[in-house]
């Protein structure tokens, strides 16, 4: 492993084939939930990948039965209680999305099982997103009591249209792998047993292709995302603002207590 990745101790990194880096969320005991340090490392690694002359393609996947269950409860609690943590996470959340968009290497996600939150950011922002049939994709922001931030508002409408984006982002309904492919949220849905092999084959195709042509095509296509940067900035700021309110406290409490949330019926806005 190159020394440039030595600091990324919260992510499992390996090289499944020549010039391909694989990033694995590796906390299977928590369904690969993302703690504060993992969130920081996931934010910054894309800059090192971008400048790594030995890498032509990246695969992102999860260990065990899940891709990623999103931010862990300790991370969420820190956002409720600590204004400095909220601001730091806001900056990281913005950087994570823009760093993935600006990374010049093609990224392939192999979405196995549950994909939520920060993990889902990379899952559907990847240049080629491949999910297994048993995948369960959920954007649960409003169920937690905060606005749909992360990558939701910048890419869901672009991938699956505004009507579908509103339905899933407002209701937090889960999508199966097959439904995600049907509405265009992911590139492919495949049999679970074939997921990793197809992701690797796709990465090898891209790693051995015309590199400048592939990278320039990615750069041009991602201008669809860059031009919508103000939408993303607004949604992420509103998400972080929500962590200072009572709805987020009730949302977290309901998750911890495994019950339906009892949000206030009135609203100050």
Structural overview:
The protein is an alpha/beta fold and 269 residues long. The protein has one domain (3-256): 2-enoyl-CoA Hydratase, Chain A, domain 1 (Alpha-Beta Complex), CATH 3.90.226.10. It contains 13 helices and ten strands. The chain has helices at 36-50, 73-81, 83-102, 117-125, 141-144, 152-160, 162-171, 177-182, 195-207, 211-221, 223-226, 229-242, 246-256, and strands spanning 11-17, 20-25, 57-62, 66-68, 107-111, 114-116, 128-132, 136-138, 175-176, 188-190. Helix 1 (36-50) runs parallel beside helix 3 and helix 2 (73-81) packs across helix 3. The longest helix is centred in the middle third of the chain and has 20 residues, at 83-102. The mean pLDDT is 94.
Q: Top keywords for this entry?
A:
single chain, 269 residues, alpha/beta, 2-enoyl-CoA Hydratase, Chain A, domain 1, 6-stranded mixed sheet, 4-stranded mixed sheet, 10 strands, 50% helix
**What is the radius of gyration?**
18 Å
Tell me what portion of residues adopts beta-strand conformation: 15-25%
- Name the shape in a single word: globular
Percent helix = 40-55%
Unreliable stretches = none
- Strands of the widest sheet, in order across it, are 1-2-3-5-7-10
- The CATH topology name reads 2-enoyl-CoA Hydratase, Chain A, domain 1
The SS-based structural class is alpha/beta
- Write the CATH homologous superfamily: 2-enoyl-CoA Hydratase, Chain A, domain 1
Q: What kind of sheet is the major sheet? A: 6 strands, mixed
Supply the CATH architecture. Alpha-Beta Complex
Total helical elements: 13
Determine the mean pLDDT: 94
Terminus-to-terminus distance? 51 Å
Which series of helices and strands comes N to C? Answer: EEHEEHHEEHEEHHHEHEHHHHH
Q: How many distinct beta strands?
A: 10
Quick one: CATH class? Alpha Beta
> What is the number of independent domains?
1
